[in-house]
Amino acid sequence: MRHLFLLFVFCILSCARNRGGVIIAGSTSVQPFIEKVAEHFMEENPGIVINVQGGGSTAGIQATLNRTCDIGSSSRNLKPEERGLKVILIALDGIAVILHKSSPIDDLTVEQVRGMFSGKIRSWKDLDGQNKAVIPVTREEGSGTRASFEDMIMGEEDISDACLVQDSNGAVREIIATTPQGVGYISVGLVDDREKAVAIGGVEPSLANLITEKYRFSRPFLLLLREEPTGNAKRFIEYVLSPEGQELLGQSGLIPANQVVVD
Predict the structure, then answer these.
(1) Which CATH number fits domain 93-211: 3.40.190.10, 3.40.50.10330, 3.40.605.10, 3.20.20.30?
(2) What is the pTM of this model?
(3) Backbone angles phi, psi at 176, to 5 degrees
(4) In this predicted model, what pLDDT tens digit does every residue of 235-247 receive, in sequence order?
């Protein structure tokens, strides 16, 4: 099924590419942020069309390798078998664990979050005293958000098959916003007042805590290329990395790449 989905995405991208413009494909976490930057870019460059597609980080990596998009996007680092692409860091993001805004819980431990998603903690009674079932909502296989969550939170534990599976950060957010018993995880930059982002181990997922690395659960937002960019693709990447483009990403709740300190 996953292969059929990737093939479907590749077909859509190929058709769009044939109509001209710059095709960006991949992470649904990166998508809303790069769409915002693309809107500003197209306002300043009305003759250039930037077409931003989702599909997930794995789909974006494969589309870049297969040359069915001009620029790929990923919210996770590349696996050894995926390397060989040119990788451009545009920002850092955090993974926020979210609850319904009516929840009395403001702080969870890594072990508690892991327990809910592994199926070992099935009732809120173990956490806030309410004798109600925990409803965990996760992302689909191939999602960069899920891969980051598995690496940083789950460790050696598997995400339970009993979890509800959604194909975007927005879909997870909508379910949590309307499900008092739900728990999910999304990009920190996409958290709004419809849900509650909780602290992990006493540390809130704030921009300040991400910058100082007090909040440890961060991941890269990447643009991917098969080769050195040319033409309109090069112009767009230069815009994303420009002070204006980086400011737009920062205004959206991300840590722009120009603020990231590399050891």
Answers:
(1) 3.40.190.10
(2) 0.78
(3) -65, -35
(4) 999 999 999 999 9
